[in-house]
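User: My advisor, Dr. K., asked me to get a structural model of this assembly before our group meeting. I'm new to this, so sorry if the format is off. These are the inputs:
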Amino acid sequence: MLARTDRTTLRQRSHRGSYDEADIYAILDEAPACTVAFVEDGRPVGIPTAHWRIGDRLYVHGGMGSRLGRAMAAGAELCVTVLLVDGLVLGRSAMHHSMNYRSVVLFGRAEEVTDPAAKEAALAALIEKLSPGRYPHVRPPTAKELAITRVLSLTIAEGAAKARSGPPVDDAGDMDRPVWAGVLPLSLARGEPVADPQLAEGVTLARP
Amino acid sequence: MLARTDRTTLRQRSHRGSYDEADIYAILDEAPACTVAFVEDGRPVGIPTAHWRIGDRLYVHGGMGSRLGRAMAAGAELCVTVLLVDGLVLGRSAMHHSMNYRSVVLFGRAEEVTDPAAKEAALAALIEKLSPGRYPHVRPPTAKELAITRVLSLTIAEGAAKARSGPPVDDAGDMDRPVWAGVLPLSLARGEPVADPQLAEGVTLARP
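Assistant: The format is fine. Below is the predicted structure of the whole assembly, which you can bring to the meeting.
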């Protein structure tokens, strides 16, 4: 259970919140990408980026020249936001429309992974997140490739998950209104794999 | 075409960027939600929230007590980040794994919509985004409901879109590696509508 802090104490609909690692980790693991926000010249900047998790640490990576990578490597305060939209909630009244979702907001500072073996292990975990079992089959990074890639990690220590699920919650006086009410589910669905046009003959996808 | 500013000039893979309103609007309209980042006590905070667009303005809403709503209403500098993940790109080498995506990053300050009629019109546009043609059928907001809801809008003037699409771009020396390469497409897909268990008998969904 993560400790609550002033900035992770939910002020709106706090019954929808959770500080439980299991809830937080499940959302982080399902989402392919997050927004990392930092402050630059006193103003907020939020950059979308892929993320992954190893134990109680969240990882991101990027090129050496990226604004986000430089800010993170310099120890900037960060806010990581992850959102999974699960559905559109259509109520009988305008104000009871909502969204079903699961989100995580984390705060902290990142540390740069500089040891080449640790860097490769972290990147391997990203590829395993994208496609489990894949890493042993791809060409591993060269020393030069590792050198031009920044890998950063943040301890998952200060943050909270928040979620809404279920049907709309309408006012009693609106229940007989002759308008459809319910949820239009949304999910990040996988389509049919699209092979690289240059794929060598006879190579098949073991598992997507 | 939005004017480039220092903070919207893309530093990484700038060929993937666009300042064209049509590109930016299309991404904003397709995504159900964004992250709005602001600075609180010198530190970044990124909050996920639903958004919608009317012309050249982006809208969000929230309760009067919300941290985000208060910061926005107070004229805080904001960064709005929208991300659509289109696929996982599996390369033949570890470093050529990537993601297909479309994103928008906007900067600016919000203005609060205070006129009740303008507020209702803005909220109607949100409901029309969720389900086109729906607004005339729901109960409109009361004066009290409007009074406890904050609606804010931001001119879409400083920002950029960025996107990646297509197969992995592998090194020539890796092309014969016997590992599947290509794209695992992802999209935010709609499932079968789930009617509210308390839906009045005989009410059907005209169009989801």
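One thing worth pointing out at the meeting: The longest strand of chain B covers residues 77-90.

User: Perfect, thanks a lot.
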